[in-house]
Amino acid sequence: MEDFPNENNSCGGNFQDWLEVMLTPKCNGKCNWCVEKDGYKPKEEAAWYKLLRLMLSTGRDNFLLLGGEPTLYRNVDFIISSLRRHRKNVFLTTNGSQLDAHFAKYRLDGLTGLNISIHHYDLGKNKRITGIGLEPLKLHAAIKWLKKHCGTRTRFNCNLIKGCIDSDKEMRRYVDFAKSYGADNVRFSELQEADEQFVDLAKTLNYKYGLNDDPYKYGCHSRTMMRGLPVNFKQMCGFLTKNRPMPNTTFRLGKIILYYNGVFYDGWQGRSEEMKKARKPKKKATIKSVLKRLTAGEITEAQAEKLIKTINSKVVAVRVVETDSDGCPRGQGYGRMC
Length: 338
Known about the structure:
The protein is an alpha/beta fold. It contains eleven helices and twelve strands.
């Protein structure tokens, strides 16, 4: 029997009011497991105001600015302020290298949420992992300024890495570290396509908090409170790691990402040759397929209604780029979200 994604996963219909925006390919970090390091990098760069128009054309309310390292994008301040003037929520994920009170005030003013990727509570070890040296006083000052003047909520992102943060005890130490900087919550995430360094969240935390062995089917997002701070977990399914079985499915809802060249791309483009060979071709979600699942008793009426609403809302044309294992495009076509 064919598997279907959990409705709380992005591929199952959740987070459809979000758009991820790759602002720049530039990055000053050197994480050896980075999925973008060898990813697709267009040569062209669109003007910031063209990117803004494209963002607004989607009608979405939540925007996540990514890279590369988005704080290296010279017009990040114009993007943030313009989106805020249109009453949009703007989030940014950074390695923290540029952060201090001055940068926060003049380049990040207006942010709804700041995600800082720090992969160890020992900043010396984090530097060995990422190549980024963080200064505690500057980091704390940036978080404090944004919270006071913009109401910005800060989340610390930590990838679980074998030999680093890889146990319940180490995670709790990390939470204490995040609290000391005034973080509002923490995300612990499994590594994508870095199988030798992979730490299994479900096994590490003894299947608590809804963690499971099949995140595609039972949910890849879960949350709890840890040492008085909200914590959420992101698990990887078989599409993203060989440490879990490949889902038996051809059904996934689409996801688009806007790149810095001003083109929308399919967010599920393959990253490695092995994964592309293993996975089956994606079948576009249609109202007919949802009704078929409802009739077969595979989903509830409420789930069907949510899926149909999501499908009807996807009217953005996307350009799909299929990539080779090194991230270079090898075929182009045109498709639609629905």
